[in-house]
Specification:
Helix content: 10-25%
Number of helices: 4
Strand order of the largest sheet: 5-4-6-3-2-1-7
Low-confidence stretches: 2-30
Largest sheet: 7 strands, mixed
CATH superfamily: Protein of unknown function DUF192
Number of strands: 7
Order of helices and strands: HHEEHEEEEHE
CATH architecture: Sandwich
């Protein structure tokens, strides 16, 4: 009798282990979908618009912590902008981020203070701003080069 009960328990456990993966895992594999409901402009030294970016805003701790993690693709003219309450040195990394990105740190007066180009996906290497920043802009890798965006340029939100 004990052998039959043990066999039954092991059989149920085996079948449960072979079941469908959790829905959460399926959603994570598909990646996140973002809504790009805001726009910003990059300005040259004369104040002329050289590029416009559609973006999703990350302005609370949960959104900033999630960032572009698990996002598998973005339109060419899209990205994410992180808003911080105070201007201070910032540092980002690429953990759980499958896309290579350009990361631009922007001061409270909307000046680009540093740019990391074509970051390495899934890297845990720290990418510090070097100077105080209130905003951080993430775009697809190559965006800053293809639009000739440089440190010292201004951003209009």
């Amino acid at each position: 009798m004990l052998n039959k009960l043990l066999f039954l328990i092991l059989s149920v456990a085996f079948l449960a282990a072979c079941g469908e993966p959790k829905k959460k895992d399926q959603t994570e594999k598909k990646g996140r979908v973002l809504e790009y409901t805001n726009t910003l402009s990059f300005l040259d030294e004369n104040g002329n618009e050289i590029s416009t970016l559609r973006f999703e805003k990350a302005d609370d701790p949960a959104e900033r912590n999630q960032g572009l993690m698990d996002v598998t693709s973005m339109p060419e003219d899209a990205g994410m902008v992180f808003y911080f309450d105070t201007e201070e040195p910032q540092s980002f990394w690429m953990m759980n981020t499958p896309l290579s990105l350009d990361i631009m740190y922007v001061s409270a007066d909307s000046i680009i203070v540093s740019i990391y180009k074509s970051t390495t996906p899934f890297s845990d290497k720290s990418l510090p701003s070097g100077k105080p920043a209130k905003y951080v802009i993430e775009t697809n890798a190559g965006y800053s080069i293809s639009n000739d965006i440089k440190e010292g340029m201004k951003v209009r939100f």
